[in-house]
Amino acid sequence: MNAQFAEFNSVYAKYFNEHKPARSCVAVKELPLGVALEMEVVAVEQDSNKL
User: Fold this and answer.
1) Cβ(12)–Cβ(20) below 8 Å
2) Phi first, then psi: what are they for 22, rounded to 5°?
3) Is the pLDDT of residue 51 over 80?
4) Among 14, 3, 17, 11, which Cα is nearest to 39's?
5) Cβ(21)–Cβ(42) under 8 Å?
6) Which H or E element spans position 22?
7) In whole angstroms, what is the distance from residue 46 CA to residue 43 CA?
8) How far is residue 29's CA from residue 1's CA, in Å, rounded to a whole number?
9) Among 35, 40, 48, 46, which Cα is nearest to 21's?
10) In the chain, domain spans
11) What is the pTM of this model?
12) Do 4 and 37 meet the contact criterion of CB atoms below 8 Å apart?
């Protein structure tokens, strides 16, 4: 898992420079359906016409 976490951090750093969103990591033995990663995301679209 450590190798995957390092790879994830590398991709994360490419898309988020100085303003990185908060994130959390929960360790579990296994995720449902055999997936390698579960991500929770909150996003805001910055379009003044929609706010």
Assistant:
1) yes
2) -65, 150
3) no
4) 11
5) yes
6) none
7) 10
8) 11
9) 40
10) 22-51
11) 0.53
12) yes
| Gap between the Cα atoms of 17 and 44, Å rounded | 17
CA distance 2 to 26: 13
Question: Which residue is it, tokens 């910055």?
Answer: 46
> Per-residue pLDDT tens for 15-48?
888 878 888 877 788 888 988 888 887 777 777 6
Task: Report d(CA 1, CA 27) in Å as an integer.
Answer: 10
Q: Which residue bears the tokens 């190798």?
A: 3
Whether 38 and 31 have beta carbons less than 8 Å apart is answered as yes
Alpha helix segments (H runs only) across 1-51 = 2-15
